[in-house]
Amino acid sequence: MAKKVFPPAIVFNPAPAIMVSSQGKDGRANIITVSWAGVLCSDPPMIGISIRPNRYSHGIVKEAMEFALNFPSASLIEAVDYCGSVSGKDVDKFAGAGLTPVPASKIKAPIIKECPINVECRVKQIISLGSHDLFIGEVVAYHLDEEIIVKTNKADAEKAEPVAYCPGTLEYRKLGSVIGTYGFTKGKAK
Amino acid sequence: MAKKVFPPAIVFNPAPAIMVSSQGKDGRANIITVSWAGVLCSDPPMIGISIRPNRYSHGIVKEAMEFALNFPSASLIEAVDYCGSVSGKDVDKFAGAGLTPVPASKIKAPIIKECPINVECRVKQIISLGSHDLFIGEVVAYHLDEEIIVKTNKADAEKAEPVAYCPGTLEYRKLGSVIGTYGFTKGKAK
């Protein structure tokens, strides 16, 4: 199996596809779809999202120092793509995507009703890296649709139908079958 | 669809499952599987990984200021789980997992031959967040197995078979079917 080497670029599979909701001081809510995002820390629970400084959501999140992650199900894929392709400067994305803002519990920005998983975050740090600024958010609460809850407070990935993003080929994909559970090799002879 | 609110915890779907290879000053190579990882910046291309300070790889990466991301295919799931469950303090994980170290192009740490996607990174910044330290890595080169290359320099997710991780339910999952391509809603009436 021969390998070919290439100059620097982003290669990463899978990235997530997350709708980030925020609210400006003027009370106007916005949504941006991000895939440059990941878990940063377990305790305290922290999640990072990266946004280009010229995006409308960048200014809002920087000013409010809060945002919500809304994990869409596969059925919302048109809204996911729409919120990543148009600017909130020009349109009301909640209306344009047919999504419903509902109040969060700890932050002012609304969460998206149609997304089965919503995570409220407060920004602890902003790091400028180049094309993108990294917003380090601490989780302050999360919401699950009752229908997707398993093990008291976990999301069932089968029912939540999260969306994966493959940056190289620009594909949104569903998750597929379970191939193991963390720790399943423990105790096996090696 | 009623929602239930919960106190802070990590909820994130999908996270990746990546085998990070590194090499200590003593020439000993190690592997750690991480899921707390994500793209941070497009230009320059930067990827973040978070590692607990008590993990063996933490000291190695901090000292070498380099690491490689090795994206496994689903067939390597036992090795993925093994490298996330045991410590390199006690065992040679390349040998234990049956993986082959091959030289990288820009960094001293080896990449993993069996993984179809390998990304070499140099650490630009380390940020202590609590249980985990975030290592911000700049991509300096990447490798693709010839068999998975599409569009000159991209990875075919069908052939690369990347592994997704669902932290809540601890499931490793394959990626499923394509449900759209970035930008597919552009120009559609809204």
Task: Explain the overall architecture.
2 copies of one chain form a homodimer. With 190 residues, chain A is mainly beta. The first copy, chain A, has a domain at 15-37 and 53-122 and 142-174: Roll (Pnp Oxidase, Chain A). Chain A contains 4 helices and 15 strands. Chain A has helices at 56-64, 77-85, 93-97, 157-160; strands spanning 3-6, 15-16, 18-23, 29-34, 37-41, 46-51, 66-71, 101-102, 111-112, 117-128, 133-145, 149-150, 154-155, 163-166, 171-181. In chain A, the strands form 4 sheets. In chain A, strands 4-3-7-10-11-6-5 form a 7-stranded antiparallel beta sheet. Chain A has a 3-stranded antiparallel beta sheet with strand order 2-14-15, with no helix packed on it. A two-stranded antiparallel sheet of chain A has the order 8-9. The longest helix of chain A is centred in the N-terminal third of the chain and has 9 residues, at 56-64. The first copy, chain A, is globular, with a radius of gyration of 17 Å. The mean pLDDT of chain A is 96. Chains A and B meet through strand 1, strand 2, strand 5, strand 6 and helix 2 of A and strand 1, strand 2, strand 5, strand 6 and helix 2 of B.
Could you provide a short overview of the structure?
Chain A has helices at 56-64, 77-85, 93-97, 157-160; strands spanning 3-6, 15-16, 18-23, 29-34, 37-41, 46-51, 66-71, 101-102, 111-112, 117-128, 133-145, 149-150, 154-155, 163-166, 171-181.
What secondary-structure arrangement, pairings included, does this model have?
The structure is a homodimer of 190-residue chains.
Chain A lengths: L2 E4 L8 E2 L1 E6 L5 E6 L2 E5 L4 E6 L4 H9 L1 E6 L5 H9 L7 H5 L3 E2 L8 E2 L4 E12 L4 E13 L3 E2 L3 E2 L1 H4 L2 E4 L4 E11 L9
Antiparallel strand pairs in A: 2-14, 3-4, 3-7, 5-6, 6-11, 7-10, 8-9, 10-11, 12-13, 14-15
